[in-house]
């Protein structure tokens, strides 16, 4: 996906970024663009996979959310997607008919409907994530030992900086 680092910034959204040390906007923007390119490159195959399954982007995102967070109330999904309950219900209905999700009633409040992945839904997401992991592994294996070491140091630093933005 990435042949060489870009010398100039073409993404208008990142032109004015500045690093914590006062680094120039174009330098930070170039790095942001590179990270986005890597993330996009890692997703390429998985997007092709889910598209071949006749799932909408919203259906796919629901499956990913349920896989990561576990069963959720329908209302929580509607809030997460900023849509109405009838809208999310229609989307969930399609996943239920496809055998990828199921509805359950909350044991404490029978009025509350919980959406959970079925084993088939969980297996689908795991298969797609494994494809992404395989692509990343193959790409990292192509790097020289020095490049892998530099990548490791940089990713640890980036992850730490991301954690700092949350707290």
Could you please describe the fold and organization of this structure?
With 167 residues, the protein is mostly helical. It folds into 2 domains: 52 residues, no CATH class; 72 residues, Orthogonal Bundle (Arc Repressor Mutant, subunit A), CATH 1.10.10.10. A hairpin with a 7-residue loop joins strand 2 and strand 3. It is elongated and about 55 Å long. The N terminus is likely disordered.
Secondary structure: elements and pairs:
Layout: H1 25-51, H2 57-69, E1 72-73, H3 74-81, H4 85-97, E2 101-105, E3 113-117, H5 119-141, H6 145-166
Antiparallel strand pairs: 1-3, 2-3
Helix pairs in contact: 1-5, 3-4
In short:
The chain is built from six helices and three strands; from the N terminus they run ααβααββαα. It is mainly alpha-helical and 167 residues long.
């Amino acid at each position: 996906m990435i042949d060489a680092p870009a010398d100039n910034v073409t993404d208008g959204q990142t032109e004015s970024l500045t690093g914590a040390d006062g680094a120039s906007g174009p330098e930070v923007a170039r790095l942001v663009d590179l990270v986005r390119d890597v993330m996009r490159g890692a997703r390429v195959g998985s997007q092709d996979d889910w598209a071949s399954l006749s799932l909408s982007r919203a259906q796919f995102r629901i499956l990913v959310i349920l896989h990561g967070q576990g069963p959720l109330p329908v209302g929580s999904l509607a809030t997460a997607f900023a849509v109405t309950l009838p809208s999310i219900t229609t989307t969930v209905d399609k996943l239920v008919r496809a055998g990828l999700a199921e509805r359950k009633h909350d044991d404490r409040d029978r009025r509350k409907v919980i959406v959970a992945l079925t084993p088939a839904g969980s297996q689908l997401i795991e298969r797609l994530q494994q494809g992404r992991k395989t692509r990343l592994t193959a790409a990292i294996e192509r790097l020289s030992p020095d490049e892998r070491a530099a990548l490791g140091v940089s990713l640890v630093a980036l992850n730490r900086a991301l954690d700092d933005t949350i707290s």
